[in-house]
TrEMBL record:
Belongs to the precorrin methyltransferase family. Pfam families: TP_methylase. Keywords: Cobalamin biosynthesis, Methyltransferase, Porphyrin biosynthesis, S-adenosyl-L-methionine, Transferase. It is an enzyme of class 2 (transferase). SUPFAM superfamilies: Tetrapyrrole methylase. The keyword S-adenosyl-L-methionine applies. It comes from Rubellimicrobium roseum. Residues 17-227 form the Tetrapyrrole methylase domain. This is uroporphyrinogen-III C-methyltransferase. Pathway: Porphyrin-containing compound metabolism; siroheme biosynthesis; precorrin-2 from uroporphyrinogen III: step 1/1; Cofactor biosynthesis; adenosylcobalamin biosynthesis; precorrin-2 from uroporphyrinogen III: step 1/1. The gene is cobA. The keyword Methyltransferase applies.
């Protein structure tokens, strides 16, 4: 196991719970603070989207699976949170490892609240969110000055498992040039319908990035009108990106090999040094 650079690394104390983001998939996108946590943990409670190779960096830790996948038998959130409390009270160094960032549609805030309410000390280690890092691996920048001055991140389902009824889709459609949807495959047809009804154009570019940043990653490009049909054939996990920034993949798909094209028609020229 590689040595960490010289630094005043935090000490993982017994009885603490660290809420750690594992990033979008590729183990190389793990932060050094997360690696430090893995090397000290007594027990790792991990989610379904955490790559096995990342767990291998905690060879001496007990592993407890707490994955939640839509439509499949999953542990209840309350049970997961209380299990973290129990493990901490046993004097263990508890690493709660979550895909992406623990505070971005990851229920990390809820778990942290439960821990604090039970007197358990916590530390938060942010991670790269799939809605940013996953799209970057697909060659899609979430911001570009010729496309958008805002980006909106939304979840594709609420606590009931349905499309979020509390979201003002009309306001989102009007206000945000780029929309990134987490966990939106199941309700893609409803979401597309809401955005079209709010005035988004049927031909607007859309990308679905599945298993982002992993060797299994695939990218499907379509339009807002075609999203329901394409999404119906995709298995989760996946990120949906809606906006003209998707066109930039024609130039920035670095894994396939970038090409000197100008998909936005902005007449980009090489800048002198």
């Amino acid at each position: 196991m590689p040595e960490l650079p010289s630094f005043e690394w935090p000490v993982f104390q017994p009885g603490w719970v660290w809420l750690v983001g594992a990033g979008p998939g590729d183990p190389g996108l793990l932060t050094l603070h997360a690696l430090n946590a893995l090397r000290q943990a007594d027990v790792v409670v991990y989610d379904a989207l955490v790559e096995t190779a990342i767990l291998d960096w905690a060879p001496g830790a007990e592993r407890i699976y707490a994955g939640k996948r839509g439509g499949k038998p999953s542990p209840k959130q309350r049970d997961i949170s209380l299990r973290l409390v129990e493990l901490a009270r046993e004097g263990k160094r508890v690493l709660r490892l979550k895909g992406g960032d623990p505070f971005v549609f990851g229920r990390g805030g809820e778990e942290g609240q439960t821990l604090v309410a039970h007197g358990v000390p916590i530390r938060v280690v942010p991670g790269i969110s799939a809605g940013i890092g996953g799209l970057a691996y697909a060659g899609i920048p979430v911001t570009h000055r010729d496309v958008n001055q805002s980006v909106t991140f939304v979840t594709g389902h609420d606590q009931t498992g349905q499309a979020p009824s509390a979201l003002d889709w009309r306001a989102i459609a009007r206000a945000s040039e780029v929309i990134v949807i987490y966990m939106g495959l199941k309700h893609a047809a409803q979401i597309a319908g809401e955005l079209l009804a709010a005035g988004r154009v049927p031909s607007e570019p859309v990308a679905i990035v599945r298993d982002a940043t992993t060797p299994r990653m695939s990218v499907l490009e379509t339009t807002l009108a075609g999203l329901p049909e394409v999404a119906a054939g995709v298995e989760p996990p996946a990120i949906i990106c809606i906006g003209r920034n998707v066109l930039l993949r024609q130039a920035l798909d670095w894994q396939a090999g970038p090409r000197a094209v100008d998909p936005l028609g902005t007449r980009v020229r090489p800048q002198s040094a």
